[in-house]
Write a structure and sequence with these properties.
9 strands, 9 helices, Helicase, Ruva Protein, domain 3, alpha/beta, two-stranded antiparallel ribbon, seven-stranded mixed sheet
């Protein structure tokens, strides 16, 4: 199979530069886990280096395209039983007994944000992630409060992971050539736990950014029935002005007042 197929419905651009593929794999630390899950392996350009460098590790491939998953089984017959034809967004690692694994991939650009939210859902099992993203998405992930690209994804990812933009890549390392620039980022799980109600935290972040131009006293109106709502810190700020640490503090303040209501 040649690099000529572009599956539009999967929005996948295939990496063809072996030096870039090798560089991506080399950025995995391979510390404190023995399993790697590759998302959207395509033609296996990352897979070959995963197996070449780390054949002692368990390697699972999740490929949504049946044609490509069949191709991968022929190319890597020794991994045949660990090649999963399916959608990562519907994949539950607990059903496979996987509770400590890294994630790597050249992620489909149209699904990259959803992939990150799915990683967040199982963040307690995922100590590390290395991924290729559309550069705009990568910048959003690593941006800080007050910056134009700062948003929900920035806050949530930075709450659970140390993030780093590793390097950018040119368009000509893909086939077909995309219309956007790309970048590779690293996520490494933070040791400290988030010491607030995580469901409430998620609700606060999403509600605040749904009206990001409004001050929090207005965007969080759905919570105003709790005790002493207007005494909560940060209400004179907008969502884009709060760091992830301040969102945690905001959540704890709301949590305390909710308990006072009960």
């Amino acid at each position: 199979m040649r690099y000529s197929i572009y599956r539009k419905k999967f929005d996948q651009y295939f990496l063809k530069d072996k030096n870039i593929a090798k560089k991506i794999v080399e950025n995995l630390s391979f510390k404190n886990y023995d399993t790697v899950v590759e998302i959207g392996p395509g033609y296996g350009i990352l897979t070959q280096y995963l197996y070449l460098f780390y054949s002692d590790y368990q390697i699972f491939l999740i490929e949504i395209d049946k044609t490509l998953s069949d191709f991968l089984k022929k190319k890597f017959p020794f991994l045949e039983k660990k090649i999963i034809h399916g959608d990562f967004l519907k994949w539950n690692p607990e059903k496979m007994g996987l509770k400590n694994f890294a994630v790597i991939g050249n992620f489909p650009y149209g699904k990259s944000s959803q992939i990150l939210f799915h990683i967040l859902k199982y963040n307690q099992y995922i100590p590390e992630c290395i991924g290729m993203f559309q550069k705009e998405v990568a910048q959003r992930i690593v941006s800080n409060s007050g910056e134009k690209t700062y948003g929900i994804l920035s806050v949530l990812i930075q709450t659970f992971y140390h993030v780093k933009l590793l390097f950018t890549v040119t368009k000509n390392v893909f086939t077909p050539v995309p219309n956007v620039k790309s970048a590779v980022i690293s996520l490494k799980k933070k040791k400290e736990n988030v010491d607030c109600n995580q469901n409430l935290f998620l609700e606060c972040v999403k509600t605040a950014f749904n009206q990001r131009r409004k001050k929090l006293r207005n965007s969080l109106q759905s919570l105003k029935n709790i005790s002493n709502f207007y005494q909560i810190p940060f209400l004179d700020k907008r969502a884009e002005e709060l760091s992830f640490k301040e969102f945690i503090q905001l959540t704890k303040e709301i949590e305390v007042r909710k308990l006072e209501n009960d």
